[in-house]
Amino acid sequence: MDKQPKIRVLIVDDHPMVCEGLTSMLTTPEVEVVEVAHTGKSALEKIKRLKPDVTLMDIRMPDLSGIDVLQEVRQMNLTTRVIMITTYRNISYLLKALAAGASGFILKDISREELLNTIQSVASGARYVDRQFLQGVLRDLDVPKNQQTELNSEIIETLTPREMDVLKLIVEGLSNKAIAEVLVISPSTVKGYVKNILEKLYVSDRTQAAVKAVRSGLVQ
After folding, report:
1. Closest CA to 68 of 89, 87, 79, 82
2. CATH number for 176
3. Do 102 and 186 reside in the same domain of the chain?
4. Residue 136 pLDDT > 50, yes or no?
5. In what order do the strands lie in the sheet with 128-129?
6. DSSP, residue by residue, 185-200
7. pLDDT at residue 146 tops 50
8. Fewer C-beta within 10 Å: the chain N or C terminus?
9. Could you give the CA distance from residue 76 to residue 132 in angstroms, rounded to a whole number?
10. Average of pLDDT values for 163-173?
11. Are strands 81-86 and 54-58 parallel, antiparallel or unpaired?
């Protein structure tokens, strides 16, 4: 009986330790890590040159984002199947990745067994999204119409420019501490802005605020 060829995987992440950890996890009889890349531009070059079966790609990188790379891969009709991997439970990332043609979307706290199963499934032509994350997103989207409060111009106008800045960073998946660092304000001030945003958008948590902002087109 012929031996099944290994699944050839390219790992893309700007943190060398993450690449080393993923390489160790994926070194199995079924999978071969052909190379790693630490930037989006390097990833594109290696995808074109190595033609991996699957590319496991981080979303946030210093030059091109993983989604930018994915869009380039699709425009060039490269055959690798891309699994986006991220630390952030970010609805915007998920929607953008799937819209750009990602074959998978997983979080970095995934188990070794599930990671290997995801790669094998995606390599065979399936698509995979982290189940717990997806279920949470679907719960937020599955709101009866009579309970929805659409973002109309009056609601949008109630958001101050600074609250809009905070909302955009919430959609990107940043914590209050990270938002405070980006905007050079105190975490307690950010907490106050977040409270105001939730009240003005008629939602109970940050994920719902992000979902509503993305669905309404308020934040891209």
Report:
1. 82
2. 1.10.10.10
3. no
4. yes
5. 31-37, 7-12, 54-58, 81-86, 104-107, 128-129
6. S-HHHHHHHHHHHHHH
7. no
8. N
9. 32
10. 85
11. parallel
